[in-house]
UniProtKB/TrEMBL annotation:
PANTHER family: GOLGI PHOSPHOPROTEIN 3-LIKE, TRANS-GOLGI PROTEIN GMX33
Keywords for the protein's UniProt record, in alphabetical order: Golgi apparatus, Lipid-binding, Membrane, Signal
Record-stated family: Belongs to the GOLPH3/VPS74 family.
Matching Gene3D superfamilies: yeast vps74-n-term truncation variant domain like
Protein name: Golgi phosphoprotein 3 like
Entry membrane topology: Peripheral membrane protein
InterPro entries with a match to the protein in the record: GPP34-like (IPR008628), GPP34-like_sf (IPR038261)
Organism annotation: Phasianus colchicus
GO MF assignments: phosphatidylinositol-4-phosphate binding
Span of the signal peptide: 1-20
Organism superkingdom: Eukaryota
GO terms (BP aspect): Golgi organization; Golgi to plasma membrane protein transport; Golgi vesicle budding; retrograde vesicle-mediated transport, Golgi to endoplasmic reticulum
Pfam families: GPP34
Amino acid sequence: MSPWWLRFLVPFLEVQSSESTRHRVAAAGQSVPCSPLRPCSESGCCCTPHFWTEPEEDVAADRELPDDDSDNSKAPRLTLMEEVLLLGLQDKEGYPSFWNDCLSPGLRGGILIELALRGRIHLEPLTARKKRLLDRKVLLKSAAPTGDVLLDETLRHIKASESMETVQTWIELLTGETWNPFKLQYQLRNVRERVAKGLVEKGILTTGKQSFLLFDMTTHPICDTTEKQRLLRKLQDSLLERWTGDPRRMDRRLLALLVLAHASDVLEKALGGLEDTQYEMAMSRVRDVLEADAELEAAQGKGTEVIWAVLAAFNRA
């Protein structure tokens, strides 16, 4: 009969023996069964069930990236601000029309829509007291960086704001059109030039300088017209050959581009190359979209609330 104290050492000796066996077998390159007292965390372990599981990684916030263009998958990805500016630029001169005073707020509206499509901001939920799009505040959904300087700067402004603001108010703040001196810090400066530099880096524009009587101005002529022609063709085809007849069935980025081109006063120029009959048909369909009930379309169109809110803000202005 074994001594009484040996019974307390048996489990400990068995564990030590099994652990030494594991080390010897592992050194020989063979599979090692797991011990119940030391569950395995290896992905190839044959033990079931697993006692310990690795926590799942957080899902990235940036889910709404620009969709691939079916016409040219190798084309550079452009933000909505870059597309609007490209539509408004004069090809050889390298600057938009001097009479266009809508491009600046249009670019700011494009920033808000781009942030919404990338899952960074959204409107506060619909309530009995706040039913209208222009009454609902912009909420920060994710502060994860986007990789775009203008978008990230706007995210920081929204995050640092002490009070929540509506879409229309944010467009005014980002443009600098506010009477509140304490909110001038939210103004985005040199937006047009910074967007143009992004197009220069992508090889679409080049940088030049033109002298006028009293001043010199930096210009950005188009050096590669392929991207602008592709953009014009996509916009025109969406209103002619690929017309869906229902804004809810349109691609969200295409709907946003249509709204922003109208708000920035560059839409007629984009459609100016069409024949008379095609131009009249395209403009008639544009009016159908722009005159639609924004509240109803936002309620029934998934993920389009900020787009229709931007349109409502410009229609109200």
